[in-house]
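Q: What would this chain look like folded?
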Amino acid sequence: MIIRRLCLCFLLLFSVARYLSAQVMGFEDGIPAGFRCDGNGNLALTSLYYKEGTKCLEWNYKPGSALYIPLESPLELTSKVKQRYGITLWMYNEVPQQDSIRFEFLSSDNKIVYQFGFRLASSGWRACWIGFQHMAGSKEGKDIAGCRLVAPQRKGRVFLDRLLFPETETNDRTTPDMQMPYNNSFDFRDLWHWCRVWQWEQYEYDIPLSSALTLQEQTELKTIESRLTEMLCSSKGDMDKAVSDAYSVFQQVAIRPSGSGFVGAPLVAPDELNREKGEISWNDLETMLSGFAYDAYYNASSQAAEYYFLVWKYAIDQGFAFGSGMGTNHHYGYQVRDIYKTAWLMREVIWQNRDKDQILSALVFWSALQETRKPCQYGRDELLDSWHTLLMPKIVSALMFVDERERVRALKGLSRWLSTSLQYTPGTIGGIKMDGTTFHHGGFYPAYTTGVLATVGQFVSLTTHTDYELTVDARQVLKSAFIAMRNYSNKYEWGIGLSGRHPFGFSMGEEDVAAFAYLALSGDLSGEGREFDHHLAADYLRLCEKDTPEARYFKEQGIRPAKAPEGFWVYNYGSAGIFRRKDWMVTLKGYNTDVWGSEIYKNDNRYGRYQSYGSVQIMGQPSRRLSGYEENGWDWNRLPGTTTIHLPFDLLENPLTGTMMAHSKENFSGSSSLEGTNGMFAMKLMERNYRNFTPDFVARKSVFCFNDRLICLGTGIRNSNKNYPTETTLFQSVFRNGMSIRLGDNEMAEIGMSLEMMGDTLNPVCLKDAYGNYYYVKHGKVRAQIARQESRHEKTKEVTYGEFASAWIDHGKSPQGESYEYMIWIQPNEQDLKNISAQNTYTVLLCNNTVHAVRDAQTVITAYAAFDSVSLSDDELLLRLPAETMIMYRRVNEGIRISVCDPNLNISTKTYTTKEPSRVIVKQILLKGVWNLSCKNEKLSVKHQEGNTLLTVFCQHGQPVECELHLISDNSIN
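A: My prediction, written as structure tokens:
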């Protein structure tokens, strides 16, 4: 719901700007000057139909007729005009025909520069939006003086309204449809999937239509239909409000028969919607159709049933119909989902209605079910949007065919399409990645994942143990996304670094949780040969807080709720790592050439620049709020772990007029792990060159994660910003009554208190935050405060206030080569505090601009982050490391276990999204002594040379490569 509102706000802003820049030719006050009708035809104003105001232009024509629309002055055909300009209007046709009206754009010397045809194959209002660049014609000439509409070779009439000529900013996402199937190039169709509905309409099934259904097909069809009815009836929400809203909107729309169609509030796409004029869009259709369906189905209201079909007639007449793109249809799925859910409830009466063919064809067309006549195209982008918004419409549409044979074929096609879409997608296009991350807008995006997994899970539930269930391979890919969401959510929420443009918003919902159960019940995906997946079932019981039939069944089968995940997970498609023990979670986040740092819109996440500047966010409780993270009063400069320049909010705000999704120019940023238990994070931090940025701001950062401790190192911190200080934030958390923090021996428990201390190796500064975490700073000037903070709302810029305790390392203004070292001990108990000297549990082996290296005493792990290539003399195992490599190792039996990782996805194309895959990166590490692999691994090879071993590792997808090596001859580990 929130995403839909945000999309609508963006579209409304776009539409306002569009109308200000175009030449609007209205018909409310008369026929515009210069309009003329040549040949046997005439022009008139009429209120018989209209798409704006209460009047439109009626053109009666005969063979040889032409309507001429002049410009006030010739339009020079500059490169911008050729690329961006065009024409938009709506045309009403009363009777479908097999011919077209030809649009010709004439130069001042009366030559045709551009032209296109507009088919009259449909009745009702249809949009005509097209840019010059997508038209035919000579495309030669210096200017355009006007437009000529050439009539078909017959008598007839059409009605024109909402004319913008020239349209100075033709919509990038104009939608090809039956009227103009050639409109817009298909170059961007992989991205703008919404606009492909007519292209997909040309697909033909390669699945034959059976002559009759088998008994099994009949039985399974009834099973799925029964499951769908039960599912939709149990999720209808606040029905009374839905019904009330439907009648309210219906009254405002004021639908009335007129001519061969209707008049009322004009229905248009959000990009041209003007609410102040009483216009409506798809969400208003959804409100009316769903509310009337509920009233008719549950309350047996005959009036609601009558209104339901009246709204359908009006919608189809207004352009929400088969073969219509309505100018642009992008993101429509977010506004029509309930139309389909309630259409299922009304299916019996729809099948009996005389307009059933038009209603059903509209439902099928706008659900994009036609795409499923073929397997999913590999490399097809924006899958999350399609799964989330149009999968249920596809399911409903497939089951709405009157002929049961067509339902079966549609279900087969849909199941195949969904299974083939559920494969790991390449590059940065949408879908599920090799590490289980889910991509949208070219990045790892949990806020778009929630709801998506729920909807796919519903399909799994509907089709389980039928011939239409997803393939095992598809369900395995789906499971990886569920497991990833389980891992990066504590309990239902994720860290700010992963939040995209919703820094304090979104979480795993009840339907997402339910989908764990649905997938578990579909079969054992663990390879253990059980009736259902016990691991997913246990995860479901941990997450589900209700007494559901699935929960009762799992408990009856002996399943117990899983414990919170523990381990370290590498998600380098998001330049991220997740470290967990007990009930806490740490999110580590960076960015690089393939991974954007944050998604910032003009009115969303305005101050989110620093989300991926090496953030180390501890969620010690099962929510952001309980862990101390709230938006009111939040200092956007101080996300824990980040190294930032502390800016005023007006300088921190998005410097661009539109969206900013900045990538780094550095490749090295991400995480690695050893045995999935402990891990590390490293990044070359650099800031881009935008307004109010500091382009020479760089640093090298690392975090080493062992058991319940984080060792954080930073070197080479430098920039030229002399106006504002550079800081590395230790913590910022909500301060509530009864809380306290400690800096050294100083207890701080009141608003307004602040202290500073200098830490060094011999005398580290010890801090304790208000949430049970301890910080030991061995290098750096530490400042701490408890303050009532003034901030800004990330959308509205409204001033907000909140009370926070914060601590940071102050690197000063314009630092030149500053560094830091600190350790975080997460929620130690009293016994640990008494028995363990935490700051002595590790040793920093190296900490410079070339390499960060740590040896941990408790886990006996040695870990290296090599920013540049380096030769080593003092390490017990390593002689030479290549640049941009992370290595972790520990002794095991007579050998070592080692992991090697380059987090770089190594994608060749650096664009918004790309289908170019992650490429292999070869790393060669020189080891002391002669070692062999303990078992064969195609990603590794060893070569012995001069008493040492050259270990060659083939890295890909940002994943660590792990193996065991056994010693043949010494010269290495003691």
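The radius of gyration is 32 Å.
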